[in-house]
Prior knowledge:
By secondary structure, this protein is mainly alpha-helical. The protein has helices spanning 10-17, 49-55, 62-85, 93-112, 120-136, 144-153, 168-200, 209-253, 260-300; strands spanning 22-26, 30-31, 38-39, 42-45, 60-61. The protein has a 3-stranded antiparallel beta sheet with strand order 4-1-5. Strands 2-3 form a two-stranded antiparallel ribbon. The termini are far apart. The relative contact order is 0.13.
Amino acid sequence: MAAEEYTPTTTEYIQHHLTNWTYGKLPAGSYCDGNQVQESTGWTVAYCPEAMSAMGFNAIHLDSMAWSIGLGLLFVMVFRWAAKKAHAGVPTGLLNFVEIIVEFIDKTVKDGFQHKNAMIAPLALTIFVWVFLMNLMDLVPVDWIPSLAMWIAGDSHFYFKIVPTTDPNITLSMGFTVFLLMIGFSIAKKGFMGFVKELTLHPFHTNNLFVNILLIPINFALETIALIAKPISLGLRLFGNLYAGEMIFILIATMYSAGLLIGIFGGFLQWGWAVFHILVITLQAFVFMVLTIVYMAMAHHVDEEDQFIH
């Protein structure tokens, strides 16, 4: 079935490229407008932003889930292949590239994590490569895969984003996963009461028990805010940088419909921004990994001064 032919306005074009393929429970009623009228049928795919908003928190972005899981599986398969092909000789090709990445991550972990935990290096490797692969999708021309998806679906309004890290649901879920690991390692290393001490006896404490009790609410508020800010900033930093990069690609793509000369100029801009964006996507994967290592190191660190706080 051929997709319906239509020419979107610039605003519609931008909004379409920034909207996810969404599945969720649609409350009773009618949604969308014009030729797109969607009646509630319970759990279904949304056909317009109004229906997506009505689905609320329980909606699932199918495209973000599919691409993030698919790229994660690609990472596992490639590195599993490399592990099976590893040998004592001089590596070549893809195997050499994988070994360079592993050695780079290993050195970074050794420099930033001075404790014993065999899980940190694999965690750092997974984060760096997985985030890099998701970011790398931003270099695919913005119309190629979405247009193919619309053609396959037979619907010119079909939504399909291909960059998972431009979805805050993905980046914040990764940030909060790191947060849960940080809490878990902190309790395992310091004990539950040691973790409670961190939240209630820092940053202000004295040798006076009565004064310490009075300072507990202040310390708890400050430490809790600082703790929660870590995963939120981790996720939003990645989302913000990649979303901005994708927006620039989309804005440049709108130049192609403005005439031959402007279209050629847009092509040069697209190429220049893609070259620069290679640095951005690599740097953001590196920053996410390094901050994760730092947070894991903080979780394992035991302040000797705590031994004297009662």
